[in-house]
Structures are given as C-alpha cells and as structure tokens.
Design a protein that fits this description.
The chain is α+β, with helices and mostly antiparallel strands. Helices cover 42% and strands 23% of the residues.
Length: 121
C-alpha cells in the first residue's frame, strides 16, 4: 500500500513539474518574469498620465471605474492606451483648446459637439 501511494505522489509531482515547464516555455521570451498586475482607480490612472504628459483632463462626475492592468505599467501608457481603457470602461474623451473632457458613452451628439473633437493623439 505504501509503495502504491508513493508511486501516485511521484506521478502527480512529475505531472505538476511538466505542466509548469510547459507554461514557462509557452510564455513570450522575457515576459514571464516581468508580468505585473496593477489594480487602480481610473481617476488615479488619468492623474498619473496627466502628470507625465502635461495633459489636462476634466472628468464628468460619473467617470469612475476600477482598472486592472496586467503586463503593463501606468508610467508607460500612451494616449491611445488611455483612450482604449476609457472606451473599455464605457467612456469617451473629447479635446478642445488643449483640455481633454471625459464623459460617459451614449451622450447625444449635440452634447458631445460642445466639447470639441474626439481625443486622438
């Protein structure tokens, strides 16, 4: 009985080692060790981006969301990344006179038009 239990444990341990090895081999080169998960409030993410790029944001009071970034760093996000994060969370950004206005998706076009053009950098 003891020998059978030992053999089963050895088999399970070997299977676990093989599974972990396959996961490591399947990861893109250099990414396995540097993958970072960041949980942030959208406002904090926009604040960090604004400070780094000297961008001014004005947020609708309904602009609130939790953002989870996996494999990215807040200080390396581009304008396109930030815009995609906004879209993913149900918001749109418009720019006028150097100010970026962030509001919920779905507002009527005549309201959006008051805030300039779609934010694209």
């Amino acid at each position: 009985m003891y020998g059978l239990l030992t053999k089963q444990l050895e088999t399970k341990a070997l299977a676990a080692i093989i599974a972990v090895s396959l996961l490591i081999l399947a990861a893109p080169h250099g990414r396995a060790a540097e993958c970072v998960t960041i949980n942030s409030e959208l406002n904090a993410l926009l604040d960090a981006y604004a400070a780094r790029t000297d961008t001014t944001f004005i947020l609708d009071p309904r602009v609130r969301a939790s953002v989870k970034l996996i494999g990215a760093e807040i200080d390396k996000l581009t304008a396109k990344d930030v815009d995609r994060i906004l879209i993913l969370h149900g918001f749109e950004a418009y720019e006028s006179d150097g100010i970026v206005y962030v509001m919920p998706n779905g507002l009527p076009d005549f309201v959006k038009g008051e805030f300039g053009e779609r934010w694209q950098q």
